[in-house]
Amino acid sequence: MQWRSILVMGSAGARARGIHVSRMPVIPKALSFVSDGSTHHRRSSASVSMAYGHGMSQEDMMQKDMLILVDGNDCVTGAMSKREAHEFSAARPRGRLHRAFSVFLFDERGRMLLTKRAASKITFPGVWTNACCSHPLHGRTPEEVDRSDDGGMPGAKHAARRKLAHELGIAPAEVPHGDFRYLGRYWYWAADTLTYGPQAPWGEHEVDYILCIRRQVTITLNPDEVDEAVYVTPDELRVMLADAQRRWSPWFVGIMERGGWEWWAHLDEALRPNSRFVKSEIIYFDPPREHHAAYNLPSHERSTGVHKLEGMEAACDAARG
User: Fold this and answer.
1) Is 133 a catalytic site residue?
2) Is 132 a catalytic residue?
3) Domains in the chain, please, with CATH?
4) pTM for the whole thing?
5) Residue of 75, 132, 133, 212 with catalytic role
């Protein structure tokens, strides 16, 4: 078996910062690791066979995945293809508001798993972010469409387990549904200008469900989804964020700036049911200026790109009782 050095932080400068350098075997067909083993890992060149998304290209999923459209109160207002919801233009400067989830996965040492989105991704390729960022979908079994705000959000958790298997090869048994903790929702938008320039044709506009879990897991990177993965401490993440050569997802940075650092510092408490970190209100934020496209104008309001249905707000409130 061949061996090679894997360097945490991806540069020789990490040694000067006192960050661990690990050695691990190159495993044929897929590069796997367990969170209490090596710390930083790069994808293999081989595809990972998963039930969801197997045999589908990024374009296939853009066309076939049916996202959950919502209004500003997170009430379901319809369905739309992933492609159409993410299309940004002068006519649709924020695409369409839809549901998403962000998984924050921690190991038993309390380190956070970061991933670098694959260069082949259509939206926000090559950016560093939290463990898994994706969407609950219409038409899935188990059901992924949450209809009431009871704090549990079981549908989003089903979606998270599906995508953790697809992107990181994490077996659902390793991330039990009941171990996820829902902490709240963030509503944000961002044009992918760092990839495509001021006329970016793609962007994100999401009500993002925050799901946290602490588990020891075995990971197999899907090269169509993830280029690299690394577990970091808070201090190591701060070093990475200060590196101007790295690009970051605007949702991850926005979430960390609006509560993420605090609940990471009190992780035991945050992972308890009904902890003080669970927020019922939806936290809204605009992106930094670098994620404003030329067609994103000061006159645009928060409601830009929000699909509403007449009477839906009252019906949604009644369902949430």
Assistant:
1) yes
2) no
3) 47-320 (3.90.79.10)
4) 0.84
5) 133
